[in-house]
Write a structure and sequence with these properties.
Blueprint lengths: L3 H21 L8 E4 L8 H4 L2 H9 L9 H12 L10 E4 L3 H13 L6
Parallel strand pairs: 1-2
Protein name: Enoyl-(Acyl carrier ) reductase family protein
Family: Belongs to the short-chain dehydrogenases/reductases (SDR) family.
GO molecular function, one term: oxidoreductase activity
Length: 116
């Protein structure tokens, strides 16, 4: 299974985030995670050189762009700020809406039905 270990690790981190939040919340300790989408970084540079991959990710993101490190940093800064003080045990997805729409987009790309 391609990517099975990676997927399992991500699920484990989500569960650990929730567990730590519950275990230490009464002490005023918060634990949250950030799950970035396709972000332009040196790590993704090679993959993003594939024009089809780049285009597909941009088209399937409601913001019609790839994410930046500043997008992720802003989410982390918010979680660490007083404004984020009542957020605990959550995984914040920073992907421009890609994960919310990708299944619908996959369906729309391969279906004879029109989504309105």
């Amino acid at each position: 299974m391609r990517g099975g270990a990676y997927s399992a690790a991500k699920g484990g981190l989500t569960a650990l985030t929730t567990h730590i939040a519950c275990q230490y919340g009464s002490r005023g300790i918060r634990c949250n995670a950030v799950a970035p989408g396709v972000i332009e970084t040196p790590m993704t540079e090679t993959r993003l050189q594939d024009e089809r991959f780049r285009r597909l990710n941009i088209e399937m993101t409601p913001h019609q762009r790839l994410g930046t490190v500043d997008d992720v940093a802003s989410a982390v800064a918010f979680l660490c700020s007083p404004e984020g003080s009542f957020i605990n045990g959550q995984t914040i997805v920073v992907d421009g809406g890609w994960s919310s729409t990708r299944y619908l987009s996959d369906f729309a790309l391969t279906s004879r039905w029109t989504v309105r």
